[in-house]
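Lab meeting notes turned into a lecture example. A postdoc, R.K., suggested we walk through two folding results consecutively so the class can see how the record format repeats. The first protein's sequence and structure tokens come next.
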Amino acid sequence: WHARLPHFRLDHTPSAGEELQSEYLVDRRHAIAAFDALDALRERVAPLVFVTEVRTIAADDLWLSPAFARPSVAFHFTWRPRVRDVEALLPAIETALEPFEPRPHWGKLFALAPRTVASRYPRIADARALAVRLDPDGTFRNAFLDRYLFDAGDRRASQRR
């Protein structure tokens, strides 16, 4: 899907870059129930959101993709620049989606615990091992990767740094 269907028009800038974003993907078979769970939060979401988007995504075979091995529905939020308010709301969104095992978009805001995120990616141990093999000194690692890829799993991989 990511190679065939651009998310934004290629000849336009999709945003100014100052907004906050969150996105959660759930198995497509749970789309309606997940939508209903989020709808129950509409009064809390509405004052903070610029725009939302719901889209379906084909399953892929990319180990750390939120659409790995399952056709998915993505619930995207472009938030107003009210960081504290958005961060306070994210746990409620994640709790509402919890029965559907949401996978957060890695590059957007979320509050899920590292072990919870890791548990949603069946090949995360393989990704971790590959990262250690290709970057044994941790040159391309950062605090986020340490927390979500390494500290969330095999402590030995984290200590190889």
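The second example is placed directly after the first for contrast:
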Amino acid sequence: MDADPALERAFELAGSYLAGVRSRPVWWRLPYEQMVERLRCPLQRESLPAEQVVAELAGWADPGLAATGSGRYFGFVVGGAQPAALGADWLALAWDQNAGLLNLAPAASAAETVAAGWILELLDLPREAAVGFTTGATVSGFVCLGAARHRVLAQAGHDVEARGLAGGPPVRILAGADRHISIDLAVRYLGLGTDNVELVDTDEDGRIDVQDLRRRLSNGSGPTIVCLQAGEVHTGAFDQFAPAISAAREAGAWVHVDGAFGLWARAGNRARTLTEGVDAADSWSTDAHKTLNVPYDSGLAIVRDADAMVAAFGVHGDYLMPGSTSEPHDKTPEMSRRARGFAIWAALRAMGADGVAALPDRLHDRAVRMAEGIRRIEGARVHNEVVFTQVMASFGDDDQTEEVGRRLLADGTAAITPATWRGRKVQRISLSNWCTTEADVDATVEALSRISAEIRA
């Protein structure tokens, strides 16, 4: 089979898309239901030329694509893709390596090992920690809490891997009331039960109340996991790590930090102060496809106790050709997976330590500029202290705020997404893209001002 025509056509179409991504509408133009109808047809019996299928796919998909690579995409918490990382990801797809085993793909495993060392250095986390390369922070949180489950139950004399949860002591999970829902998912996946999650009070921006944490820890006993947060998904707030971890340590608890986008603040120059004391935790989960801006399907599970990670996820078989050290699949729930480390290695190599440090600070500067611009809009209000990359705003009453968001998406200038905070409808604006400029921020503020004025009129 000659792959060249299809690959050449794909490269041409991808290049055309990237060249125009900053000028196209930022939000999609056709919703899911219409996209299904647009593509629906009987599957033909005969084969088709590969290059024809590639072109057909690009033409069909275009109106259903959001311009997440645009500097004006502020929806959810979605980063873009740096050129070096995107190029490396294309190579990873072409090489098609299975990165689950050292001896199956030595280059892929080596890239992960080197990138992991760089990450621990940049984030100033324990150098002995193990790093697993996952699909994203949700699975990374699952991996970290899986290691935590192993360790706290082993300390209680229960072998959960051999005996399961039956007969073992219940595991307490303490998490802030404004935790990310992925914590609850991980608890469910691990069979720990969401009824065992105790919600700790939080302040107006979602930071955990350390005094309430201490009180709850002292009112219970047994195997305990405390979940903290580096970057609340609405407000961007960071927990007070030093006193919270100290309280957990006194109770003998494992401490996990959900840092999906916020953990990268630790690599910054100014933003680093937000993470003071976070290195004293036991595990950390983050995304590379958010603040670091590598292509999607890229998360990191970082666990200080490498033995606990391997005990929870390691697997052995004589046919697996074991290497000289722990295998990549000992650190994640996947035995077969794509080579995620190439893109992360390329992103870090291209930016260098100074570039990585500048990125979170620059994103914070853009967020501050966005907030300042929104405050100048009549009737608008910024609801959070802008400590990192999140801006949460309203534009009048709940109905007006929702309508501003809907009209902005239809307008296509920028993308922001709705949320509810403390009973109020808000629009959440996440500054996560490496290529967002001051001009992008100003254009978004102008569009919000114009649309807000139209609604008031």
